[in-house]
Amino acid sequence: MRSLRRLLKKSSLYPAYKALGHYPDYWYWLLRGKPTRIPHIMKQKTVLRFGRQYELRTLIETGTYYGEMVSGLKNDFARIVSIEFDSGLAAAAKRKFKNSPHIEVLQGSSELMVQQTLATLTEPALFWLDAGYFLWAGEHKTTDRLMTELDSIFRHGIPNHVVLVDDVVSWSGRDGTPEVTELEREIQRKYPERRITVESGLMCLRHAKYL
Ligand SMILES: C[S@@+](CC[C@H](N)C(=O)[O-])C[C@H]1O[C@@H](n2cnc3c(N)ncnc32)[C@H](O)[C@@H]1O
Fold this sequence. Notes:
By secondary structure, the chain is of the alpha/beta class. It has 9 helices and 7 strands; from the N terminus they run ααααβαβαβαβαβαββ. The protein has helices spanning 2-10, 14-20, 22-31, 40-53, 68-73, 87-96, 110-118, 144-154, 180-190, and strands spanning 58-62, 79-84, 103-107, 126-129, 162-165, 194-199, 202-207.
């Protein structure tokens, strides 16, 4: 089964196969009584809910992968920037969204590209930070990259960006991941004006003045 999946992953059909799995994943999640780790459809709904609640017109994603978040929300934001390190995945996503001028796919490492993207912003944005910070193959097991991005966002001239960090529910201090509570403490020590909540396994960071 694993080798079949590995083979499929290399094929051009894999993105379609993944997208087809969204609803079965969702139904299976319902069947299991909605465990904390949510399926992709629920992540899309959560990102959209935050965008609407804070009236944010720009979505910035780190970690494009097969462009599933971008596809799911492409009609809900006026501008979408998605950042991908892997040149093959970035090229495929550029092709996929070539007819959508409001979508930009940037190839490069997220900590640098987030900084570059911030320089282009004139209004608050929603950040979906999902660039395999600890669990991705070959990633350094430190919080440095994520913290560098948060530093850039929180020190930016626009104070009310909203940040969602994916899948912190699986960060338990094992396999090189940080303890979520440790990370919260570190962020809170540096940025006491930010309110941190963990909802459905995602970390949400907002400026206390703009809740
Ligand atoms: C979990 S997937 C992203 C899923 C996607 N955000 C979604 O919601 O469908 C993680 C992605 O992060 C990318 N990635 C890993 N390290 C990165 C880095 N330093 N900068 C940007 N992207 C990176 C991986 O290549 C992979 O495509």
